[in-house]
Amino acid sequence: MKLLMKSASCNGFMLFHYPQMMPSAFENLRQLLDSGKIVSKVDNGPDGGFHGIEAIPDGVDYLYSKKSIGKIIVNL
Amino acid sequence: MIRIIQLFRDFFIFYRNMTLPRLSRQWLVHKLTPDFRSATRLDDVEIKPPGKYEMIVKNVAVGVSANDVNFAAGAYLPGTQPPFPIGFEAVGTVAAVGEKSIAKEGDHVAYVQNGAFGEYQTVTMSPNKNREGTLKLRVHTGPKFDRNRNLVSINFVFLKRHRHFCKVILVVVRRGVPSHIFLGLGQTSDDFQIQSGDL
C-alpha cells in the first residue's frame, strides 16, 4: 500500500548478475563500516544461542522470525 | 634425498588422514522446497581424504542466511537434483590437508563453500583460484587490514592471529579491491570466543 500510493515499485536482483558493480559497492560498504554509520553484528540466537548441528534449522527459522539482528551463527 | 622427503611427507599425510573420523554428519537437501525443514535431512556422509589442493575443516560455527532457503528450493542451481549438501559459510579448524594446501593442520579458518552445514567440510583452495567454487575468486593466503584495523580479507582467513581485533568483517579481495563481503562474523573478541569454542 505504501508503494502503491507513491506509484513506486520494488525490485529484487541477483547479486552475481552485477559483478562489475561489486567492487565499488563493497568499497562503499566498507567506508560506511569504517565511519561507524553501519555496524557489524552477530546474533547467536535467543536463550543462550544455537548449539549443535541439529540446531541449524532453528537458526533458519530464527532468520525468518524477523527477530534476528545481524549475522546468525550456530555453534557446532 | 628428495624422494625420501616425499615418501616421509606422503606417510605423514597418510597417518594424519587416518586420524579423521570416517563419517561426518551433514545437512543434505532431499526435496526442493523453500521450507528448509522439509527440504533437508541430517545424514551421515563419508569423509574422503583431502585432494591435492584440499583441506578438511572441522567446523566450529556456521553462518545462516536467506541463501540457504533459496538454495534448498533449488533457486541457484536450476536442474540440479537432490541430494546435495547445503550451507555456505563457516569457521573451523583445519583437520587434514592435501600436499598443496595453503593451510596446515590446526589453522583456524573462515571459508565460503557450498556444503558448510556439516561437522566436517572439504574446502578446495588452489593458490590461483577456487577450483570448484562458483565465485572463481583469487585467493590470498594472508590476512589484510585496513587503516582502522578492520580485517579486510580473503575468502580464507586464519583466525587465530587476530582474535584480539575488535571489528571484524570479512571481505573478499580481488586484485587488491574489496569485492565481496560474505561473512560478518563479529565485532568483539567475545564473539569469536563464543563462536570458536576451543579455538
Overview of the structural elements:
The complex is a heterodimer of chains A (76) and B (199). Chain A is α+β, with helices and mostly antiparallel strands and 76 residues long. Chain A contains three helices and two strands; from the N terminus they run ααβαβ. Chain A has helices at residues 2-5, 22-35, 56-64; strands at residues 42-43, 71-75. Chain A starts with a helix and ends with a strand. By secondary structure, chain B is α+β, with helices and mostly antiparallel strands. Chain B has a single domain, classed as Quinone Oxidoreductase, Chain A, domain 1 (Alpha-Beta Complex), CATH 3.90.180.10. Helices cover 18% and strands 33% of the residues of chain B. Chain B has helices at residues 2-18, 36-39, 66-72, 189-196, and strands at 23-29, 40-46, 54-64, 84-85, 89-97, 108-112, 120-124, 156-158, 168-174, 177-186. Chain B has a five-stranded antiparallel β-sheet with strand order 7-3-5-6-8. Chain B has a three-stranded antiparallel β-sheet with strand order 2-1-4. A two-stranded antiparallel sheet of chain B has the order 9-10. The longest helix of chain B has 17 residues, at 2-18. Chain B starts with a helix and ends with a helix. The A-B interface holds A 22-23, 26-27, 29-30, 33-34, 39-42, 44, 49, 53-54, 56-57, 59-64, 70-76 and B 25, 27, 36-37, 40, 42, 59-66, 68-69, 87, 117-119, 146, 148, 150, 152, 167-169, 171, 174, 177-181, 183-187, 191, 194-195, 197. β2 of chain A pairs antiparallel with β3 (54-64) of chain B.
